[in-house]
Known about the structure:
By secondary structure, the protein is mostly helical. It has one domain. Helices cover 89% and strands 0% of the residues. It has helices at residues 2-35, 38-49, 55-66, 69-83, 86-96, 99-134. Helix 1 (2-35) crosses helix 4 (69-83) and helix 1 packs parallel to helix 5 (86-96). The longest helix has 36 residues, at 99-134. It is extended. The N and C termini lie far apart (80 Å).
Amino acid sequence: MKKLLFAAVFLFIISSIQAQENSEFKQQTIEFIKLTGTSDAFDSAISQIGMAVPAEKKEAYKKEANATLDDLYGKIADLYMKEFTKEDIAELVKFYKTDLGKKLASKQTTLTQSAMMVGQTWGMQVQQIAQKYTN
Protein backbone atom coordinates (compact mmCIF):
# COMPACT_ATOMS: atom_id res chain seq x y z
CA MET A 1 0.00 0.00 0.00
CA LYS A 2 2.85 2.37 0.83
CA LYS A 3 4.44 1.66 -2.58
CA LEU A 4 1.15 2.43 -4.34
CA LEU A 5 0.73 5.67 -2.41
CA PHE A 6 4.36 6.62 -3.11
CA ALA A 7 3.91 5.91 -6.84
CA ALA A 8 0.74 8.02 -6.96
CA VAL A 9 2.44 10.95 -5.20
CA PHE A 10 5.47 10.59 -7.47
CA LEU A 11 3.29 10.64 -10.61
CA PHE A 12 1.41 13.69 -9.31
CA ILE A 13 4.66 15.56 -8.69
CA ILE A 14 6.04 14.63 -12.14
CA SER A 15 2.78 15.74 -13.78
CA SER A 16 2.86 19.04 -11.92
CA ILE A 17 6.46 19.70 -12.97
CA GLN A 18 5.69 18.87 -16.61
CA ALA A 19 2.60 21.10 -16.59
CA GLN A 20 4.65 23.98 -15.18
CA GLU A 21 7.40 23.46 -17.77
CA ASN A 22 4.80 23.30 -20.55
CA SER A 23 3.18 26.49 -19.25
CA GLU A 24 6.55 28.28 -19.20
CA PHE A 25 7.27 27.00 -22.73
CA LYS A 26 3.89 28.26 -23.91
CA GLN A 27 4.41 31.69 -22.33
CA GLN A 28 7.83 31.99 -23.95
CA THR A 29 6.34 30.92 -27.28
CA ILE A 30 3.64 33.59 -26.97
CA GLU A 31 6.36 36.13 -26.17
CA PHE A 32 8.18 35.07 -29.34
CA ILE A 33 5.02 35.41 -31.43
CA LYS A 34 4.43 38.91 -30.08
CA LEU A 35 8.06 39.89 -30.69
CA THR A 36 7.71 38.99 -34.39
CA GLY A 37 5.29 41.86 -34.97
CA THR A 38 2.19 39.71 -34.99
CA SER A 39 0.56 41.98 -32.42
CA ASP A 40 0.65 44.88 -34.86
CA ALA A 41 -0.93 42.72 -37.57
CA PHE A 42 -3.73 41.62 -35.22
CA ASP A 43 -4.33 45.22 -34.07
CA SER A 44 -4.53 46.30 -37.69
CA ALA A 45 -6.94 43.46 -38.51
CA ILE A 46 -9.18 44.39 -35.58
CA SER A 47 -9.22 48.00 -36.75
CA GLN A 48 -9.93 47.08 -40.37
CA ILE A 49 -12.65 44.57 -39.52
CA GLY A 50 -14.25 47.09 -37.18
CA MET A 51 -14.30 49.99 -39.63
CA ALA A 52 -18.05 49.61 -40.09
CA VAL A 53 -18.69 49.71 -36.33
CA PRO A 54 -20.25 53.06 -35.39
CA ALA A 55 -18.03 55.43 -33.37
CA GLU A 56 -20.22 55.16 -30.25
CA LYS A 57 -19.75 51.36 -30.21
CA LYS A 58 -16.09 51.29 -31.30
CA GLU A 59 -14.63 51.11 -27.78
CA ALA A 60 -16.85 48.17 -26.79
CA TYR A 61 -16.04 46.44 -30.08
CA LYS A 62 -12.28 46.84 -29.59
CA LYS A 63 -12.49 45.64 -25.99
CA GLU A 64 -14.38 42.49 -27.02
CA ALA A 65 -12.19 41.88 -30.08
CA ASN A 66 -9.00 42.31 -28.05
CA ALA A 67 -10.33 39.82 -25.50
CA THR A 68 -10.11 37.14 -28.20
CA LEU A 69 -6.36 37.61 -28.61
CA ASP A 70 -5.23 35.52 -25.62
CA ASP A 71 -6.98 32.46 -27.02
CA LEU A 72 -5.60 33.18 -30.50
CA TYR A 73 -2.04 33.53 -29.19
CA GLY A 74 -2.47 30.28 -27.27
CA LYS A 75 -3.61 28.41 -30.37
CA ILE A 76 -0.79 29.82 -32.48
CA ALA A 77 1.69 28.98 -29.71
CA ASP A 78 0.46 25.38 -29.77
CA LEU A 79 1.30 25.25 -33.49
CA TYR A 80 4.81 26.58 -32.91
CA MET A 81 5.35 24.26 -29.95
CA LYS A 82 4.76 21.27 -32.24
CA GLU A 83 7.49 22.43 -34.62
CA PHE A 84 10.09 23.98 -32.29
CA THR A 85 11.71 22.89 -29.04
CA LYS A 86 11.82 25.02 -25.92
CA GLU A 87 15.47 25.73 -26.73
CA ASP A 88 14.57 26.79 -30.29
CA ILE A 89 11.99 29.25 -29.00
CA ALA A 90 14.45 30.62 -26.43
CA GLU A 91 16.95 31.28 -29.24
CA LEU A 92 14.27 32.93 -31.38
CA VAL A 93 13.21 35.17 -28.49
CA LYS A 94 16.85 36.12 -27.98
CA PHE A 95 17.19 36.93 -31.71
CA TYR A 96 14.01 39.03 -31.86
CA LYS A 97 15.27 41.09 -28.94
CA THR A 98 18.38 42.09 -30.93
CA ASP A 99 18.44 45.17 -33.15
CA LEU A 100 18.33 42.98 -36.27
CA GLY A 101 15.44 40.94 -34.87
CA LYS A 102 13.50 44.11 -34.06
CA LYS A 103 14.17 45.41 -37.58
CA LEU A 104 12.94 42.14 -39.09
CA ALA A 105 9.80 42.24 -36.94
CA SER A 106 9.05 45.82 -37.97
CA LYS A 107 9.41 44.97 -41.68
CA GLN A 108 7.81 41.51 -41.63
CA THR A 109 4.22 42.51 -42.43
CA THR A 110 5.23 44.77 -45.30
CA LEU A 111 7.61 42.14 -46.67
CA THR A 112 4.96 39.43 -46.45
CA GLN A 113 2.39 41.58 -48.27
CA SER A 114 4.90 42.51 -50.97
CA ALA A 115 5.99 38.89 -51.35
CA MET A 116 2.36 37.83 -51.76
CA MET A 117 1.95 40.29 -54.63
CA VAL A 118 5.16 39.05 -56.25
CA GLY A 119 3.91 35.48 -55.80
CA GLN A 120 0.54 36.30 -57.37
CA THR A 121 2.24 37.89 -60.38
CA TRP A 122 4.49 34.85 -60.73
CA GLY A 123 1.47 32.53 -60.43
CA MET A 124 -0.29 34.34 -63.27
CA GLN A 125 2.88 34.08 -65.37
CA VAL A 126 3.11 30.33 -64.78
CA GLN A 127 -0.61 29.99 -65.50
CA GLN A 128 -0.07 31.63 -68.90
CA ILE A 129 2.77 29.22 -69.60
CA ALA A 130 0.55 26.27 -68.65
CA GLN A 131 -2.21 27.58 -70.96
CA LYS A 132 0.22 27.51 -73.90
CA TYR A 133 0.62 23.80 -73.36
CA THR A 134 -3.05 22.95 -72.77
CA ASN A 135 -4.37 24.46 -76.03
